[in-house]
Amino acid sequence: xxxxxxxxxxxxxxxxxxxxxxxxxxxxxxxxxxxxxxxxxxxxxxxxxxxxxxxxxxxxxxxxxxxxxxxxxxxxxxxxxxxxxxxxxxxxxxxxxxxxxxxxxxxxxxxxxxxxxxxxxxxxxxxxxxxxxxxxxxxxxxxxxxxxxxxxxxxxxxxxxxxxxxxxxxxxxxxxxxxxxxxxxxxxxxxxxxxxxxxxxxxxxxxxxxxxxxxxxxxxxxxxxxxxxxxxxxxxxxxxxxxxxx
Length: 246
Hints:
alpha/beta, Rossmann fold, seven-stranded mixed sheet, 10 helices, 39% helix, 16% strand
């Protein structure tokens, strides 16, 4: 196992929180805010204090294996995943349909079909910016375009740029993959599922959120009108998660 994790709180339930690709440590903790019981916040390889991922690590199978290993280690009965984390949890639900009682899947990027052209282009642009030899200028320009007007983010851009600079292989490999081979496998999952998507996020299209919710037999879909709901809708996200996982 290549991931690390941090335990917050105590008691039951035990909720595993899995961040998205390139998330800063602050972003990774956002979905855990306000949840009762024990919150276990994962740090995937190449993020925060975790070591860089080994060559060939960046595929949904490898990430899901690490997520499952941590879930089993800490006895998690429910989980929250953002973007890549949502994809890993979806893979687990397809392969082990009775593993979790509740799943909250935030900003899923794909399900079982190739990404839409606009999403694929967004990943390609970000990967090219990370690879550019211009002192980070291209990366900061791309990241700044992700921030909705009027939103104060402090040093978020600098932190996210540092995080993404370690993830060139992931940015190259993951967009070519899908979390599950056949979405029909998710119909056997017993978990209650909450899917939260965004209307204007090119890397996490609403169509992916809708397809993910439709694949589960018991899922609720919430679409937030934003291009970056983790920045613009934190209170609403917290309310949705705490009410769902109560």
